[in-house]
Amino acid sequence: MDIITAKHLNYAYGSDTVISDLTFNLKKGDYVGIIGQNGSGKSTLLKLLLGLIKPQSGKVYLFETPLREFKEWHRIGYVPQRSGIFDKTFPATVEEIVEMGIISRKKIVHRLDAEDRRQISSALSVVDLLHMKNKLIHELSGGQQQRVLIARALAGKPDILILDEPVVGVDMIVQKKFYDLLKRLNKELGITLILVSHDLDTVAHEADYLMLMNKGELCTCTKDMIEKDKKHYVTL
Ligand code: ADP
User: Fold this and answer.
1) pTM for this entry
2) Ligand 1 nearest-atom number relative to CA 213
3) What is the pLDDT of residue 80?
4) What is the rounded distance in angstroms from the CA atom of residue 18 to the CA atom of residue 235?
């Protein structure tokens, strides 16, 4: 099944073209990295795919449905950049943050039922944080907070996770564990992944294929292509 299809997308801020005739197709189970330097249009592309901005021309389909008719937003989990989200004044526990993933899915104020509770525990188990569910979120390390955000997205039972620069500011060991977790979500739970990053080297190791953004253009390549011709892709 096609999860995301973009056809001939164009987007410009005023006269500044950021996305130029961009076409691609993401299938169920894909693990794709969207790579590009700062200012190359990664955030703009995400906003187009999530319907937050409208392309000047071109079309986006989510789960084979035209974007403007799409309503099943719980199927798409979005994990924002971590830095500075939770400071000491943020009063929620780990469990309460994950609950938000379910409440946003149901869109109405309601009491959580037993199935919801099971789903929250299961999401926290997947990211190995069930034992920390009663801690205040700011008591956790940066890497742990990032995993809580993943659990929040998982609680909505998404088919796809979109992660925006998820490991900025966390150390290498935590990064490695984090990427192992993503691989597990992809290979064992079959969740489609889009990983947005400026770090070509790392993501080239992790994702099954890459979309490189450069001055509005898109170049799709596999890991093998990068291994063979690294110089070309690194300097793109
Ligand atoms: P990235 O996420 O890869 O850093 P962005 O999509 O944020 O790239 O930005 C791409 C280009 O569009 C940059 O040149 C940026 O300055 C410009 N841009 C982004 N948002 C706006 C905006 N709201 N108004 C005008 N220009 C913008």
Assistant:
1) 0.85
2) 3
3) 80
4) 19
